[in-house]
Every structure is written in C-alpha cells, then in structure tokens.
Amino acid sequence: GEKTVLIFDLGGGTFDVSLLTIEEGIFEVKATAGDTHLGGEDFDNRMVNHFVAEFKRKHKKDISNNPRALRRLRTACERAKRTLSSTTQTTIEIDSLYEGIDFYATITRARFEELCMDLFRKCME
C-alpha cells in the first residue's frame, strides 16, 4: 500500500522538510517547506558563543576578535556537536587556543539542548 514519508533535512546552512507518498516504487512530493536561514551552523554558533564566554570567564581574555582562535574553537565545537549525538557529554581540548592558553572544557547534551532550544523549536514549527 501507500506509505507517507517525512524527510527532515537539517543541513549546514538550511533546513528543509518534504512530505512524500510512495506507492509501487513511485515517489510523489506532496509538500515542501524550509528555512534558508536555519542550519547546523546556527547550532555550532551557539556552542562557540558559549565557550567564548567560558574562556572569558576563566581566563579574563576575549577571543571573539581573533579569527584563528575562533576557527579552531568552531572546528572543536562541530566535532563536539556530532559526539553529543551518541554520548551525554563531551570534552573540548584545544592546546594554545589564545595567547598560549590551553582550553579544556566539558559540555553535556542537556546544556547544548538548552543553548539551542529556540532553534529546535523553530525546526518543529
């Protein structure tokens, strides 16, 4: 018989949802919607901002205007985000992140979800 399928695609920069029916190998798109201003990068940014604030709190230094430090932090945050898909907490470790200061921090899945709750809600709307 006919099956109805919802495709939820949260890409790097965009979010798309499609509703399809499948019957006898024939796929028919019934509806599509999305948000071109919502994607994985938005979730990464929340974690980056969280750790920029933590670095400032711990070390009294602001890395927000240092492109190299931010790039290294973003790479670590992208990795941490993926890790949190399968574990409840993860650690970020970056040697000499800024002015020779090593940065070690932990984030739980619950804290990440809290930081991104409004983004998750946008996906569900």
TrEMBL record:
PROSITE patterns: HSP70_2. It comes from the Eukaryota. The keyword Hydrolase applies. Its EC number is 3.6.1.3. The keyword Methyltransferase does not apply. Keywords: ATP-binding, Hydrolase, Nucleotide-binding. One of its GO terms (molecular function) is hydrolase activity. It is an enzyme of class 3 (hydrolase). Belongs to the heat shock protein 70 family. This is Adenosinetriphosphatase. It comes from Opuntia streptacantha.
